[in-house]
C-alpha cells in the first residue's frame, strides 16, 4: 500500500498530532450535528492578531448566516479587544443595544472542546497552523486556515490525510482566487487565449533586511509565551521575536524561521497558487527546481532577503519566482497576460486577449469571496475553491524553492510520491524539527 494514501487511523492521528507539536486533545462527549443550508454557522477564531482583527474577523461578522461565538489568543490584550469587537458588532444589531455572547479562551484546546462550534478560523503564526488544524479536525470542526498552511511538506500531507479521513471541510485562506483580475487571467490561459502556455513569472515583495540580535526581555504579563512557542524551540522572549505589545504592527515572527519561512512562502502562497491554477497543476507540482538566495549575516531575523527560483513542470512549462512585486505573468505561444496586485491590474500583449470572451462551452472559474466560499462549503459539505490538497500543493511549491536554495543545486521532484528521488540530503528537509510533545 502506498504510505501516502494509506488510511489514517485514530491511533496514527493522535501520534501525528504529538509529532506535529499538538498536545493530546480530549474530545467532547458529543459533536454538534452537521449544519444544514439554512443554519447559522457558529465560528470560533483561533488567533486574533493583525490578520484576524483587520481582515478575517470583520468578514465573518458581516455575514448574516454566521455567528462568531468564541475567540482565542495567548495575548490577553488582543483577546479582550477581539471580544469587545465581536460583542459591539452584534450589540449594534439588537434593539436593546446590548450583547454579551462571545466567549474568550487562552488555550485553543478548551475552545475546540465546545460541541456547539461548527467551524474555526485559524490565524496564528505559521508553526502552529498544522497542530491546531489537526486538533480541530479531530474535534469535529471545519477549518479555514491562513496561508501558508504548513512549515514543511510532510506535515502538509498529514493535514490532507486528516481532512479526508474525518470528512471535514477545509479552506486555504487566500483571497487571491477571489480577485477578478487573477481569476480572469487564469480563465484566459486555461481557455487557450494566449496559445500554448510556455512560461510563468511570479513575484513576491521584499522582506525586511535585518534585525540585530536582541536582548532577552521579561515576558509581558498579558502574554502566555510558553503557549505561544508551543512546538517551537525554547528561546528567550524578546518583543521583535513575537509581535508588538498592545498593537497590530507587522509581527517579528514572520521574519524568524522557527515560526515562518518569510516571504518565499508568505506571499508565495498567494501568487504561486494563481500560477498553479492557470497552469492546470493545482493538485500536483513541478518536477525540477533550482534556486539561489541570500540570508542575513547575523541577527534575530533570519529569513531570506532575496531569492530567485526556477521550476520546470512535466507539461514543459517553466516558472520563474523572484523577489520583485506581487504579480503573475503567463506567457504563451500567441501572447501574454499579467495580473498585478497593484495599480496596473490586468494587462496583456494585445487588447484582443484582454477582450476575448469566455463562452458557454469554455472553462469558467468560480467567482466568490474567500469567506463566502468557506461558509457555503460548510453548509453543503462540498469542496472549497482551495482545498487542503490545493493549499498543500501550492505551499509545497514554495518549500521546494526554499529547499533548493539551501542545498545549492538542481533538484528532481516526484510530485506523486512527494520525494526527491535518490536524494537523502534533500529528503531530510521534507520535515521540520519539532519540540514534541510540548507541555504547558
Automatic annotation (TrEMBL):
The keyword Oxidoreductase applies. SUPFAM superfamilies: Glyceraldehyde-3-phosphate dehydrogenase-like, C-terminal domain, NAD(P)-binding Rossmann-fold domains. InterPro entries: Gfo/Idh/MocA-like_OxRdtase_N, Gfo/Idh/MocA_oxidrdct_glycsds, Gfo/Idh/MocA_OxRdtase_bact_C, NAD(P)-bd_dom_sf, TAT_signal. Transmembrane segments: none annotated. Residues 41-171 form the Gfo/Idh/MocA-like oxidoreductase N-terminal domain. Keywords: Oxidoreductase. Gene3D superfamilies: Dihydrodipicolinate Reductase, domain 2, NAD(P)-binding Rossmann-like Domain. The keyword Oxidoreductase applies. It comes from the Bacteria. Pfam families: GFO_IDH_MocA (PF01408), GFO_IDH_MocA_C2 (PF19051). Its EC number is 1.1.1.292. One of its GO terms (molecular function) is 1,5-anhydro-D-fructose reductase (1,5-anhydro-D-mannitol-forming) activity. It is an enzyme of class 1 (oxidoreductase). Residues 216-439 form the Gfo/Idh/MocA-like oxidoreductase bacterial type C-terminal domain. This is 1,5-anhydro-D-fructose reductase. It comes from Kiritimatiella glycovorans. The lineage of its organism: Bacteria, Pseudomonadati, Kiritimatiellota, Kiritimatiellia, Kiritimatiellales. The gene is afr_3.
Amino acid at each position: 500500500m502506498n504510505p501516502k494514501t494509506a488510511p489514517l487511523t485514530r491511533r496514527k492521528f493522535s501520534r501525528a498530532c504529538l509529532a506535529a507539536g499538538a498536545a493530546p486533545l480530549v474530545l467532547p462527549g458529543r459533536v454538534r450535528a452537521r449544519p444544514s443550508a439554512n443554519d447559522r454557522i457558529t465560528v470560533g477564531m483561533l488567533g486574533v492578531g493583525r490578520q484576524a482583527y483587520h481582515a478575517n474577523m470583520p468578514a465573518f461578522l458581516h455575514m448574516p448566516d454566521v455567528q462568531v461565538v468564541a475567540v482565542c489568543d495567548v495575548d490577553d490584550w488582543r483577546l479582550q479587544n477581539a471580544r469587545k469587537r465581536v460583542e459591539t458588532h452584534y450589540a449594534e444589531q439588537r434593539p436593546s443595544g446590548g450583547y454579551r455572547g462571545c466567549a474568550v479562551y487562552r488555550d485553543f484546546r478548551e475552545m475546540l472542546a465546545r460541541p456547539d462550534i461548527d467551524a474555526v478560523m485559524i490565524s496564528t503564526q505559521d508553526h502552529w497552523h498544522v497542530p491546531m488544524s489537526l486538533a480541530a479536525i479531530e474535534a469535529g470542526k471545519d477549518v479555514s486556515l491562513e496561508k501558508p498552511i504548513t512549515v514543511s511538506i510532510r506535515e502538509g500531507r498529514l493535514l490532507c490525510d486528516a481532512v479526508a479521513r474525518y470528512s471535514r471541510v477545509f479552506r486555504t485562506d487566500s483571497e487571491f482566487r477571489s480577485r477578478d483580475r487573477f481569476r480572469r487571467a487564469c480563465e484566459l490561459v486555461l481557455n487557450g487565449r494566449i496559445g500554448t502556455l510556455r512560461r510563468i513569472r511570479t513575484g513576491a515583495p521584499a522582506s525586511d533586511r535585518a534585525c540585530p540580535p536582541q536582548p532577552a526581555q521579561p515576558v509581558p504579563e498579558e502574554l502566555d509565551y510558553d503557549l505561544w512557542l508551543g512546538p517551537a524551540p525554547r528561546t528567550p522572549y524578546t518583543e521583535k521575536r513575537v509581535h508588538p505589545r498592545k498593537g497590530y504592527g507587522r509581527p517579528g515572527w514572520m521574519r524568524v524561521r522557527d515560526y515562518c519561512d518569510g516571504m518565499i512562502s508568505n506571499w508565495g502562497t498567494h501568487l504561486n497558487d494563481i500560477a498553479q491554477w492557470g497552469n492546470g497543476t493545482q493538485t500536483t507540482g513541478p518536477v525540477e527546481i533550482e534556486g539561489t538566495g541570500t540570508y542575513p549575516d547575523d541577527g534575530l531575523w533570519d529569513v531570506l532577503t532575496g531569492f530567485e527560483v526556477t521550476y520546470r513542470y512535466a507539461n514543459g512549462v517553466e516558472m520563474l519566482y523572484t523577489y520583485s512585486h506581487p504579480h503573475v505573468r503567463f506567457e504563451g505561444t500567441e501572447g501574454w497576460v499579467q495580473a498585478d496586485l497593484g495599480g496596473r491590474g490586468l494587462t496583456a500583449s494585445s487588447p484582443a486577449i484582454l477582450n476575448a470572451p469566455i463562452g458557454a462551452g469554455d472553462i469558467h472559474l468560480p467567482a466568490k469571496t474567500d469567506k463566502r466560499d468557506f461558509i457555503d462549503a460548510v453548509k453543503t459539505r462540498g469542496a472549497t475553491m482551495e482545498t487542503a490538497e490545493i493549499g498543500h500543493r501550492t505551499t509545497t511549491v514554495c518549500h521546494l524553492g526554499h529547499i533548493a536554495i539551501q542545498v545549492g543545486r538542481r533538484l528532481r521532484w516526484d510530485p506523486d510520491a512527494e520525494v526527491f528521488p535518490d536524494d537523502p540530503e534533500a529528503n531530510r528537509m521534507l520535515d521540520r524539527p519539532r519540540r514534541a510533545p510540548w507541555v504547558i
